[in-house]
Queue: 2 jobs
Job 1
Amino acid sequence: MGAGYIGLEMADALTVRGLSVTQMEQLPEVLPTVDPELGALVHAELAARGVEVLTGTTVQAITRAAPGQAGRLEVAATAADGAAVTRAADMVLVVVGVRPQTTLAAGAGAAMGVRGAIAVDSGMRTNLPDVFAAGDCVITHHRLLGVTYLPLGTTAHKQGRVAGENALGGTRRFAGSLGTQVVKIFDQAAARTGLRDHEAEAAGFAPVTIGSAADDHKAYYPGSHRITMRVTGDRATGRLLGMQVFGHKNAEIAKRIDIAATAIFHGMTVDAVSDLDLSYTPPLGSPWEAVQMGAQAWTRATRPR
Amino acid sequence: MGAGYIGLEMADALTVRGLSVTQMEQLPEVLPTVDPELGALVHAELAARGVEVLTGTTVQAITRAAPGQAGRLEVAATAADGAAVTRAADMVLVVVGVRPQTTLAAGAGAAMGVRGAIAVDSGMRTNLPDVFAAGDCVITHHRLLGVTYLPLGTTAHKQGRVAGENALGGTRRFAGSLGTQVVKIFDQAAARTGLRDHEAEAAGFAPVTIGSAADDHKAYYPGSHRITMRVTGDRATGRLLGMQVFGHKNAEIAKRIDIAATAIFHGMTVDAVSDLDLSYTPPLGSPWEAVQMGAQAWTRATRPR
């Protein structure tokens, strides 16, 4: 079973239904779309729930098991140190990422862009007259990266709406992605929006990423959970570039990343995040919302001394 | 026991500890800071949990009970139709709102503003040299209303930070309140940000308020809850002016109102809310976040035909 959100969600769903699950991941950590500090927390949750997690492990072959062997299939893999790893399985799910399927469009003469995806403008127009394209097959306009390829369901919905309105004569523009994502792993959730440190660096920013933690609500009120955050800001401008959050699924992780996504959408500085008037009651939050505390940790750590 | 957030939170806290609670509210509905449509849902939750709710009921006297009577106190009230209402009680909690305590500041010569609160500029400076003021005793700069009085803990924290930085020679400004609030009532939560219809009307906007509902996450995934929303927008400009949300406390009500608060902070139109790149996974959301569905319901209802 491969990496990424879909692999994690399948490991979760199959384990809770009583199946014994092994997750083989080629990269050094599960969920490579977040920093390793958060990936390790996801890994720990998988392990705590009984998923066998084999990172740095490359699947080489999936073969039918010999008669008399356990399971119907045998998965042969190579560990990071070169050692052979085999596991018997009744079912193998392969997650290998997304590639645009553009045969039809290419055959019609549509121009292609990055990663072989269909080139579209912000109105979702292809180079072909009256032909619009949207979804996993098209390039993605990103608010911080310019043109990239980043297929997500949320983005597809927005692009489809733009294409539909414009096909009817509208003038709507796709406002751009921030790569906002969330995944549930058993009782935990991991989310990100905007850029991570190395992505921001590659895009020409001067990023600093600061980790911090806060309670999802006042700890004196029962049922509070600790949230782990990583805030990426630009040292030159103070601009908020990205945020990553990990914590209990009831700790409003998804909507907290959405607050950050809305702040990034508007080009806020990390410091200005503390100006937002956000809600508070002890059972559901803090006078400074956790997202603001993560931003304040960044400001404290990057302040000239 | 009076109205408002504190009264509701006390009714919740005392009931879950096994006390029998009666809530007397002078106004026609509990939680008058949200529209009656949502107040009725709060009322229903109180009633379902065994709180006796008496709205339109004005407390006239609280007296010591005569020997032999049930309880140590007697509360005498008048119902909306003029009928006398009495209840025996061992404890009476009175919630009558907030008034600024400014004796010290007034004696020192500080100028007062609306509702008798201390007048401050956006740097939290009073008219007295080197004297700053912040919190429940000062007027509130509101992003949509200008100068008002709206004491909240979140606002006090922000104002205190501004006053502290400026007292040390800083140049920080309080960015203004949106009156963002949330309250938990047993297993439900009610939240608001920005202006309600009549508040927006009084402030010179041309408001339209549209109610809608959405699932907190994909209903095919277990544990979903229905969210009730009310979106207020300006018919003339399309600007998002306010939002109110009610639903299960695990339905991320507080952080959803914070997404709306962040959008209002930036002066977004209701329509543009759909441009925000917000997170999605079926157990925790929808491809269009509920806040975006509420905004889209507003746009559909107000579109010229």
Note: Chain A has three domains: 4-89, 103-167, 181-302.
Job 2
Amino acid sequence: MTTTTTLSTHDAAFVRDLHVMSQFGATENGGVDRQAASAPDGEQRRWLTGLLVAKGFTVKFDGAGNQWGLYEAVAGAPYVVVGSHMDSQPTAGRYDGAYGVLAAAHAAFRVVEKWTAAGPAGRPKFNIAVVNWFNEEGSRFKPSMMGSSVYTGKLELETALDTTDAAGVSVRDALDAIGCRGDYGGPEAAYCAEIHIEQGRSMEREGITIGLVHSNWAANKYEFVVHGGQAHTGSTVIADRKDALLGASMMVVAARELADHFPGVLHTSVGQLTVYPNSPVVVASRVSLLLDLRSADESVLAEADALLHRRIPGIERLANVQVERNQSHSWPVTPYQPEGVELAAKVAADLGLANKPVMTLAGHDSTNMKDIVPTVMLFVPSVDGISHNEHEYTTDEDIVAGLTMLTEVVNRLCDGALED
Amino acid sequence: MTTTTTLSTHDAAFVRDLHVMSQFGATENGGVDRQAASAPDGEQRRWLTGLLVAKGFTVKFDGAGNQWGLYEAVAGAPYVVVGSHMDSQPTAGRYDGAYGVLAAAHAAFRVVEKWTAAGPAGRPKFNIAVVNWFNEEGSRFKPSMMGSSVYTGKLELETALDTTDAAGVSVRDALDAIGCRGDYGGPEAAYCAEIHIEQGRSMEREGITIGLVHSNWAANKYEFVVHGGQAHTGSTVIADRKDALLGASMMVVAARELADHFPGVLHTSVGQLTVYPNSPVVVASRVSLLLDLRSADESVLAEADALLHRRIPGIERLANVQVERNQSHSWPVTPYQPEGVELAAKVAADLGLANKPVMTLAGHDSTNMKDIVPTVMLFVPSVDGISHNEHEYTTDEDIVAGLTMLTEVVNRLCDGALED
């Protein structure tokens, strides 16, 4: 799909910047591999610093590695925080998170330009902070949404810094290695805005340009550890085996069967599964797996949770294993502030952009931020709904429309549109 | 289970040496972790060199890292090769392989003592070579039985040396790092003998001390790669998913269902399974797995192979994936030379040791050696059949009886018992 729209100079600069960003950690197949605090993540952060500083923004890193681009128009006033994340999954797409940070920067540039052009009469109520949250993806360091969780007080800074990746490298050391651990405490936020790709098909299917996110799906995330016993794969008779991988495989199949039981309203998955000792001739003694259940309907989620746990004793018996539920966390369906959704709907209508209310199935940094300040979350369409994949794509027309939309939302938030 | 037998000085020295060996790569739970060409493997090899040299043996390493302890009693005569392997699976037991190498060394010491005591009249027909084969386990470097495969001409030396582990380290570099890659070409073998733990329960159950291995089970080993597509585990609707881990899990379950279809006569397993990208929030795009089918009955194996492949299209459809059969190898039921089995039966009877013919379900270096020279393979019992597990155990009484048995087999092979 190619875009034939003629872009304004401003919009063309934005599209060019997004192409430049896609070179950091670029993969052969047109995607990116830019996990949190990796070398390409560090290079891209330095590039963003340059972009922000050139427009008169002050760049600071906080203790959790969040990168802040600050523009203080009104001394001492709180900030409208706008941004997303630039880290990626391994072999991921170019838009997830990165689009939101760059759109935030360009939106902020445009709003500041407008203020400057208007002189004292254009003075806003709030300042602007562009943010690049650290480790939204959670592929290298768990949990995901780490930087925004620390900023919003949901995760202790020291706990985050002590977290290690599979190679044993801590967040602290990884951030220091790319020079991105600072001592800034972060700005005082008044409002927040984030724009992101939908990562699903619903907007594309209906010809919608802007999604007005009003709430998130509920999710239960479990870490299960299946315990068996090491044995020789050749000589051990089947009745003597305690096959942890067989038990874990049954859990993966059970998760899909649950989704099939609630067609369309329950999403289930196992993305990560780790086998020990993972040798060709040894029956596995231990397999850990991360299993998610997600639904927009909390009663469906509760029922699915019960059905899943009811399956476990049978799996334990058939595979001769113990299934331990190690850690789990869950979140309910929570709304974004309705006044923020209304503001976004009004902006979209004023700009003539096709829009509809949507839910987010994925977690975002804004789902943390909405718990401390009124937050506006916007989506642009994903072609074929493809995401976490090198072939992730959103048209230039849509990313530019999203930038226009975000700019006006930030403009009105700074002007105090949601005050009183 | 403790052994109350009073051991002879010779036997006590053997048991002591086995305890010393178990310290190399010792784990907290009484097992060992001594993968091929790891640091503990290297240390143990140096220890074995000391043991052999002290008894007048010459120690050489060949190009594939096999460690040879040579005793030439008859200048220029071929060798009776006796040994096993000292590498282990991760968190494995103390007996697997290590017992066979140490028993080989002590058997050789005893035979040489006898020759020395007898003077010129005791001169044998063949010399003795104790061997510690490189990388029998195949957990770090595939394939298993690597050293004996190179020695018997089944695997090219350069292919073996170029093989890399999961961290990208080659066999060549790993052997050089522990100083165990030599330029010795290996001795000319006339006969071979190996002793090993059974790794199953059949001998223990029947009160048998010595197993006379007459053939091996047939095996088919496949590497499957399941191809899906990366997607977001939250936002991607189930119908759009191409879940490689779901497909792989269905393969694991299908393998067990096959074993259940042929109760007792077919062993199936998946020991190794590797997920990409293995991130909590990404539907896996690629999973590779190693799946084994083993049976003493080749017709069962052929039927199981057909049933397995008949299941694949259904798995591909249900999980929306492609299943690729990447590499596979298989071996038929092959006999050890009957004259070797007869010799072993006679020795056991002469020594008054309870014995029976058995098959080996696992592969051993002797299954390679039997294809080039007449080979005697012996088993001692495994308590509870436990193997590839830190709790692997064989009583002192049984390991000593096995040593007595192996000594007399080697003695008679060196004396030419199987000539003409």
Note: Chain A touches chain B through 74 residues (CB under 8 Å).
